[in-house]
Amino acid sequence: MALVATVAVVGRTNAGKSTLVNALVGEKVSIVSPVEQTTRNTIRGIVADPRGQLVLLDTPGLHKAVGTLGTLLNRMARRSAAGADITCVVFDAAQEPQLEDIGWMQRIAKEKPEKVVFVLNKADKSPFFERMFRDAWKEAVETSWSSESELEKGVRSQYAGVRGQSGSSELELEKGTIPLWVKSISTTEGGAKDVLDALFGFAEEGELLFDEDIVTDYPRKLAIADAIREKYLSHLHQELPHELGIVVKRVVDEGSRWSAVAEVLVNRPSQKPIVIGRSASTIKAVRKSAERELKDVFGIPVALELWVRVEPNWMKNDRLLAEMGYLGGLV
Known about the structure:
The protein is built from 10 helices and 10 strands. By secondary structure, the chain is α/β, with parallel strands linked by helices.
């Protein structure tokens, strides 16, 4: 028997969740970009360790939802947290707590999951707002107490009276609302070791959920789409951060290589030249860069054929969203 657990890696957009997942797994399984809201699907990264196995669900970052797609991303993040053994909330502690950070704290304080790890990411930055995050958590807990029913308050008061004899503060008496705080520098080798130790500390004995040589069970089409979109984000920066959709129409196994055809969706005709670039420079650069990465990921050459299509309001099109994996269950 080994230690096993499923872990929902949640937090606001661009807090460093995908970078942390990749650091824990030891290989790139999740899209990483400086552009906010780059993760659009729940990706399973599988950590193989002498102690056992962790299945990491890298969720979309919680943000102020705009439109159908934004609502779906937030719903996926919340569903992942509800179904996991451990909730790992990642905070960008190089910034003061934001509204979404406080929202996750309030959710944890209210729902009281048993196993919670709070990761203060970017611990190498200065300033580092650890105290502000701890104070925000204390306020979230106190707020959740004020909204309890009279029955719940009575039970908690009796529990505190019994346990208080040992000298523990009331905040420490709330079972299920005591997160384990860990600092992380997930961009450096070994910078996520304390996070890994904390997660295995919560894991329990059981059978392995996946074969030991698997690092992800993310569907092939979605992995290819993510690689293409990541390269576009790195080339275009803020020009088309959230209006760019990638649909992989087919993948053909040709034995010595794979060939894939993908559509790049934009909302307006004026965006099409941006995605293609002068003399097709942008789309060529994206294709070559994505092909190199996909060869590293899959261990086989992947030849991409990219087509750009104007699809007004594609982010509200249920058929396209389903094809991209946003309308199914947790992938």
